[in-house]
Fold this sequence. Notes:
The protein is an alpha+beta fold. 25% of the residues lie in helices and 23% in strands. The protein has helices at residues 53-56, 61-69, 74-94, 164-168, 171-178, 183-204; strands spanning 7-8, 14-15, 40-46, 102-105, 119-123, 129-135, 138-144, 149-155, 225-228, 237-242, 249-256, 263-267. The strands form 4 sheets. It has a 4-stranded mixed β-sheet with strand order 6-7-3-12, covered by helices on one side. Helix 5 (171-178) runs antiparallel to helix 6 (183-204). The radius of gyration is 19 Å and the shape is globular. Mean pLDDT is 87; it is low at 1-23.
Amino acid sequence: MPRTPPAADTTGRKVPRPVTRGRAPSARDGTARFGRGNAVHVWHGRAGDLPDPADLALLDDTELGTFRRRGAPYAGRYAGAHAAVRRILADHYLGGPPAAVRFGRHPCPRCGDPLHGRPRIVAPATRLDFSLSHSGPYWLLAVTAAGQVGVDIEQHTGRGFGDAPRIALSDGELGVLGRAGSAREYEEVFLRAWTRKEAVLKAVGVGIVTDLRGLNALTGARGPVRIDHKEPGSPGTWLVEDLLLGPGRSAALAREHDRPGPLVLRPADTPAP
């Protein structure tokens, strides 16, 4: 029998097709969209500053409460990003109306509290995992059927970071940052480290309560890097990749190290099948 050729990710690199164990992909819960290749789909878009009534009509009570507590332009961007997530999940994976998608939380791996763990899809029933991040008007959504995933995006503002580098970076990383030749390069290097670390912590589900200095994110490699971080019930090793979304943005994806597969970048206006 001829062998299936390896898949290619968005950078053209060849990615071996790993063996997926467990239940077969199902069309009913959206996992069939990924086949058996451990792919991750990363969607990206830009939300408007003004709230769209069509977006607000899709949000649940929790999301509407958050929307009402935020001022302009953050409220409109929040509504636009969360409505986009609902449309993508419903139209491309789960079926049904976007407003019917229900969200909840996994228990925190550190304390077991169900109120601040990783987000999850409660209904329709699915094994899909997802992660959402937004910064300024930009948002980023990762969806996969292959374990835990996390993303982070940060808009470049040129305003500086104050004490954040000293708090977030190890001594070695501060050395790399100190060799930046310009303010622009300084911002790019710091946000490369920050988004990589944030993506890992979002995949784990603990947030920045972790000592960020203990995560080694600037290894000198521009391609996928390995970051070790262990929490109860979570993988201890993560494959982290920078996402190239255009100027003015830094972004990273973290996924389980032993479940590699193709990475597919998709703009939000990709039509549903």
